[in-house]
Amino acid sequence: MTRTLVHRGGALNARVYRAEGADGAAWIEKDFSECPRLVRNTLGRFFVWRECWILRRLETTGLVPRGVRRLGPFALREDFVAGFALRDSDTGVYASNVFDPSKIHGVPAEMLREPVPRSFFEALEAGIRAVHAAGFVHLDLHNSRNVMVGAGWRPTLIDWQSALPTSRMPGVLRRALERVDLAGVCKLWNKFRPGELPSERMKFLERSRFLRRHFWIPRIHRSRVRPAPRPPSPS
Prior knowledge:
By secondary structure, this protein is an alpha+beta fold.
């Protein structure tokens, strides 16, 4: 078996490895065992148990990695998702992107150059609605690195650390959190297929942007970046 570190994380986050067996099967391991003792025995144990529980509950949605299981109290594994992160698509949406075949695994590298089709975002929205029907929200869909593009332009959503169960929430709160997810889908759809977002979804996205800009708690408490001081004027 080979094991390659793909994300180092920090003191509060798991290290992420891509592992491959002798038979060619590949999987991802999230491991908190190298975190400080207090972290791995509290947050580490909790996040491992929680992510396994959530992904098992959502297997039938077709939107999550499969094969999830615990490797111990501080680590879990899940099947490797062949493809690439939506953020890495070389379709001109992010000016800094360049064609980089090292960012794609298990599907033709030329997919990075092809426009992500409308059907991908329709499938992503359908999957998110299935997640909501199962009683969960993801809450980090605005980050396009969490959206994987697989073979046949099939979406998979990873990194469920921010997810919440909603079945026992008041209806008003549950629907508000579900709208956060749906706004994320619309944002990505509009970003990667500019001008093609249906009008009713565009109106929904604009309302969501207003609420997120003025009332989203992480934004309210984010410290403002002060501009750099101007150099002194020559005398």
